[in-house]
From TrEMBL:
It comes from Streptomyces thermospinosisporus. Belongs to the aldehyde dehydrogenase family. Keywords: Oxidoreductase. The active site is at residue 253. Residues 18-477 form the Aldehyde dehydrogenase domain. InterPro entries: Ald_DH/histidinol_DH (IPR016161), Ald_DH_C (IPR016163), Ald_DH_CS_GLU (IPR029510), Ald_DH_N (IPR016162), Aldehyde_DH_dom (IPR015590). PANTHER family: ALDEHYDE DEHYDROGENASE, ALDEHYDE DEHYDROGENASE-RELATED. This is Aldehyde dehydrogenase. CDD domains: ALDH_AldA-Rv0768. The keyword DNA repair does not apply.
Length: 485
């Protein structure tokens, strides 16, 4: 992305319209610290307009009443439009949030395409209506769209998370008000353009970049039937509190402090090859990042040395350089937060094995070296709190039971992995960890499997039939005895 990108209008109900307010969001490059874009800051009045448009489109418009085949046609055009412009989208996202371009192509853009495509497949196979033999007679069980959805997305993987919410919402027949973060609103304009060209009817989709105050107004709006939120635990609690006033349904995908358990029989090379990208993905700004790596005491030094060497070898630099593996953090506050945790970890008695400061030669930009702490106790704050930066902890354990205990001793339960030469043993460990997704000898996120968290990592699920169902209401129709239709 080159030059200053400016948008003077908001995407409301499928059309670009003038905002009600005069506030502007300035998008800052995390690499240059310079302004790279400006967009209108949506106001409460803009939220009212968007919700009214979505309400009318759902209650009176054609979208919920079109056939599934027709909705799939439109959504397929959205998916194809994103695929055709995936390199452009990847550049925009990397410019906004510092994601390495190579990672943005695969995860931010093509990953989003995969989410859309998988949701289309789920929609085709889903049972929207079924007849059952009830206790008192035949019944018909229907699944119907939940209504107007407020989809609030974060800055770290904006297109991927938008797809996780928009695809099932649109396919089920819902209408949506999408709220991008103020740090990463530019790619949402590309998405809006693609959606309009795909032929979404009037009112079905609005996109409103805004801060937390306006987000809270949207979440608490009486015209909204469901909120789907991805973000921090603190923000998720507030979303749930505000939505509860109207008994609005919520899906919350929140933070993580995921544990990767390396068993004593694991081989060093595949562990390093698998865990380094899983730990430092997206500059450490990923809720599923493997931020706690549990190592057996019997082989602790061997694994720690290899992981430290790999962390030190990661290429840090301009996110738009294809060679970059770790880019800058999204904002100065995130850089400061990570460096504060580095200081705190040292004060707590942990040992810096790699990184620990700003990268040499990168005095401009919000950079933090890929940092690896050794000798971390699970009671330390660096092991318990989500840092959301490139700071990873190594924790020693005594035996398998101790490893499982440490992995489960967390307020979070979103992701995790186990590494071993014995896959059956790995599956047994996976069954014992209280977390929403888990990987054995790999790190993966499959769009056909339900994704979400235990404990403070969230409520509800995204992806697969389970995530699709989050956008549907269940209705029971009681039928007369003997009816065989």
């Amino acid at each position: 992305m080159t030059g200053l990108v400016e948008h003077g209008q908001l995407f409301i109900g499928g059309e670009l319209t003038d905002p009600q307010g005069r506030e502007v969001i300035e998008v800052i490059s995390p690499h240059t610290e310079e302004v790279i874009g400006r967009v209108p800051h949506a106001s409460a009045a803009d939220v009212d307009r968007a919700v009214v448009a979505a309400r009318r489109a759902f209650d009176e418009g054609p979208w919920p009443r079109t056939s599934l085949a027709e909705r799939i046609e439109v959504v397929t055009r959205i998916k194809d439009g994103i695929a055709a412009r995936h390199e452009e989208i990847a550049r925009v996202v990397s410019s906004q949030n510092g994601s390495p371009y190579s990672w943005s192509v695969l995860a931010q853009a093509l990953g989003a395409v995969m989410v859309w495509d998988t949701a289309i497949g789920v929609a085709r196979e889903y049972a929207y209506e079924e007849k059952r033999d009830g206790v008192l007679g035949p019944i018909l069980v229907r699944r119907e769209p939940v209504g107007v959805v407020a989809a609030v997305i974060p800055w770290n993987v904006p297109q991927f998370v938008a797809a996780a919410k928009l695809a099932p919402a649109l396919l089920t027949g819902c209408t949506v008000v999408l709220k991008p973060s103020p740090e990463a609103p530019l790619d949402a304009y590309v998405l809006g353009e693609i959606a309009r060209e795909a032929g979404l009817p009037e009112g079905v989709l609005s996109i409103l970049p805004a801060d937390r105050e306006v987000s809270e107004y949207l979440v608490g709006h009486p015209g909204v039937d469901k909120v789907s939120f991805t973000g921090s635990v603190a923000a998720g609690r507030r979303v749930m509190e505000v939505a509860a006033r109207n008994l609005t349904r919520v899906t919350l995908e929140l933070g993580g402090k995921s544990a990767a358990v390396v068993l004593p029989d694991a081989e060093v090379e595949p562990v390093v090859e698998g865990l380094v990208p899983a730990a430092w993905m997206n500059n450490g700004q990923a809720c599923v990042a493997q931020t706690r790596i549990l190592l057996p005491r019997s082989r602790y030094d061997e694994f720690a040395e290899a992981l430290a060497a790999a962390a030190s070898a990661l290429v840090v630099g301009d996110p738009l350089d294809p060679a970059t593996q770790v880019g800058p953090l999204v904002a100065e506050r995130q850089q400061r937060r990570s460096l504060d945790y580095v200081r705190l970890g040292q004060e707590e008695g942990a040992k810096v094995l790699a990184g620990g400061g700003r990268p040499a030669g990168l005095d401009r930009g919000w950079y933090v070296e890929p940092t690896l702490f050794g000798d971390v106790g699970n009671g330390m704050r660096i092991a318990r709190e989500e840092i959301f930066g490139p700071v990873i902890c190594l924790l020693p354990y005594d035996d398998e039971s101790d490893a499982v205990k440490i992995a489960n001793d967390s307020d979070y339960g979103l992701s995790g992995s186990v590494w071993t030469t014995d896959t059956r043993r790995g599956i047994d460990v996976a069954r014992r960890i209280r977390t929403g997704t888990y990987s054995v000898n790999t790190f993966s996120l499959d769009m056909l499997g339900p994704f979400g968290g235990y404990k403070n990592s969230g409520i509800g699920r995204e992806f697969g039939p389970e995530g699709y169902a989050e956008y549907l209401e269940h209705k029971t129709i009681h039928l007369p005895a003997g009816w065989e239709g």
